[in-house]
Amino acid sequence: MSSYQLVHLEIYNDNPSKSEKPSMYSIVSEAMRVDGFCPHVYQPQTPEILYGLDPRQLPDIAIERSKKAKDKKGRKVRKDAPLLLAGVISIPAESDIDFKKFLSLSLTFLKRSYGQNLASVVLHLDEAHPHLHFYAIPSLKDGGFSMAEIHPGIKARSECVGKGYSKKANAYKQAMRGYQDIFYVQVGSKLGMTRLGPRVQRLTRKQWKAQQAQAQALSAKHFDLTKRQRKINAVQKSVEAAKNEIQQRETKLTQIEKSAFFQNKEKMKNDYLRKRLSNSEKELAHFGEHAEDLEIKNSAFIKELKTLRKDNENYQRQFDAMAYKLSLKDEFILKLKQQRRDNNYEKTNSTDTSNCYSY
């Protein structure tokens, strides 16, 4: 059996004496099944906190934020200003809706809608219809604290500056309808729920059944599309994984090829250096042999030089002896020549003298 969606918002402050609504503390105490605050529940059960904090901590947090906040004119937050947003999401007990899917889609919707302002989500299973209670608190944005940050109706109404009450009220209603539409797109339609109930639409039972059947068909189609999308996503993931694996292999092959290239290059360089070393060793050995030959030849040359020096010394001594003999011979010859001159002179003088006596 299908059903229509039910999501509802309320706001609470810390001054319930001027309002018919209960205080924030009463609301969170009822949500956590505190004794004396849930007389409408036959057998209260401890609720399950699906997200965030224990709701009983939220009023103090909201009050603390509001005390620190000021408006653009520097004024503090009014005492009757709303501080806490509370909401309910429910499904009929007799509904055949997938309950786990209902919880998952609802939590996703709340996180998208309120972000960091979402403070707590609590599940109740001890009443006629299973439902969620959720709570959000405005943040200290630029030093301000306003429910318009998280409540779509109040936001739309606050943006109608300078306009009349009817226009503000209409903006509020349109924003809240938009909120219901968003919930239907993100949650209701995916669960086979209708956007509105039969009383609101003034439908006959036959028309209501037809609309339920259509909603269920849309839900089934959406489920089928979702299933196909999951398969497509799985295939895409496998393709991406295959691509990544191929890229990794290509990277490894490239690294191996580069490594092999550098190894070959280093090997060629090593072979070249080894060849040069071998040639150098051969040249050194040749130079060593040549040096030995030169050393042998040098020793023979030294010996020969010593012999030549000795021979030269002998020749020099012989030369000196011959030179001495020649000098003696020259002196003797000079003496003989002088004697011959002297003899000739004497003979000449003697001849001249004899000639004189003959006259």
Automatic annotation (TrEMBL):
<feature type="coiled-coil region">
    <location>
        <begin position="291"/>
        <end position="318"/>
    </location>
</feature>
<keyword id="KW-0175">Coiled coil</keyword>
<feature type="coiled-coil region">
    <location>
        <begin position="225"/>
        <end position="259"/>
    </location>
</feature>
<dbReference type="InterPro" id="IPR001668">
    <property type="entry name" value="Mob_Pre"/>
</dbReference>
<protein>
    <submittedName>
        <fullName>Plasmid recombination protein</fullName>
    </submittedName>
</protein>
<dbReference type="Pfam" id="PF01076">
    <property type="entry name" value="Mob_Pre"/>
</dbReference>
